[in-house]
């Protein structure tokens, strides 16, 4: 059976990178629950603990993330919020994960880490962060996911999940895990508005680097106005030589749901300022209804709690059944 599974960390308001790169697929008819397919989307709170979290804020962030996901159009029946005890299966999967592989991924994930030797320094790598890609793999494999809609930054993590799945299937001589495949959106990697070499990220300290789903029109206008560009005339799509403008073209195209070529053709003669104004308008047009829905859902406390609770029940039902199977397979039960 086809199982679509993905997750988002409750680490703040989603930005348009999350939205265009991943969430757009979560709400697309191809990746929602149907007769032939189960879709499960998790708010992964445990994963957020790789950096210090205030418990009260984390709980609030989970509710806010649920509201954001519902406002984006996610089918409430696909939202999972309960985190099952992933400890045992993550630990088991660590045995099938090479340290150098996890280290490489952790390095690309978290910015200030240079090598595993950093583990010895106070600013360096903690074991939890190193194990993060394995935790992600345990989550994906636990639900026996076949399709995983993610942004491009997560593709190498999924490779680790596939690798672990293959090793465990081989070791126990059973097709216990299907090999999950990534589903990428056309805007698979949206870059920072201030530095087009970095991906747009919730944890970027520079607020002006991203457009959040709840940004007011005036904030969107200001952030786009200040977005990095170049001195070349006209609008073209050339990620190698014009990364900043190309990023804006990618955003424009994804928001409109068209190819980048169409945007370039339409705006090739525009100057940067005019293009930015047009982009601001399409962003405001896209985000305004979503923001109204966020505001409406903030007053629907009972409904949101119900979605969270039903998500809990559904997640624990599927996960505990699969965990039971795994414990038996590993000889732990
Ligand atoms: N810039 C991006 N472009 C395209 N897709 C992106 N995603 C994240 N950033 C971009 C995708 O969004 C999904 C949810 O991401 P996440 O919150 O679970 O974790 P993340 O990848 O670490 O995202 P952030 O924004 O960078 O969060 P922080 O700063 O909290 O770590 C994933 O599918 C991701 O690929």
Per-chain topology:
Layout: E1 2-8, H1 16-26, E2 37-43, H2 45-48, H3 55-71, E3 79-80, H4 87-94, H5 99-109, H6 127-142, E4 147-149, H7 155-171, E5 181-183, H8 217-226, H9 243-256, H10 260-267, H11 272-298, H12 301-330
Parallel strand pairs: 1-2, 2-3, 4-5
Helix pairs in contact: 3-11, 4-6, 5-6, 6-7, 8-11, 9-10, 9-11
Bound molecules: adenosine-5'-tetraphosphate.
The site of adenosine-5'-tetraphosphate has 19 residues, from strand 1 and helix 1.
Gross morphology = globular
Strand content bin: 5-15%
Distance between the termini: 26 Å
What binds here, in terms of ligands, is:
adenosine-5'-tetraphosphate
- The number of distinct helices, counting runs of at least 4 residues, comes to 12
Architecture of the largest domain in CATH?
A: 3-Layer(aba) Sandwich
For the report, how would you describe the main beta sheet? Answer: 3 strands, parallel
Can you give the mean pLDDT?
88
Order of helices and strands: EHEHHEHHHEHEHHHHH
- Helical residue percent band: 40-55%
**Could you name the CATH class of the largest domain?**
Alpha Beta
Number of strands: 5
Low-confidence parts, pLDDT < 50 over ≥5 residues? 111-116, 118-122
CATH homologous superfamily placement of the largest domain = HUPs
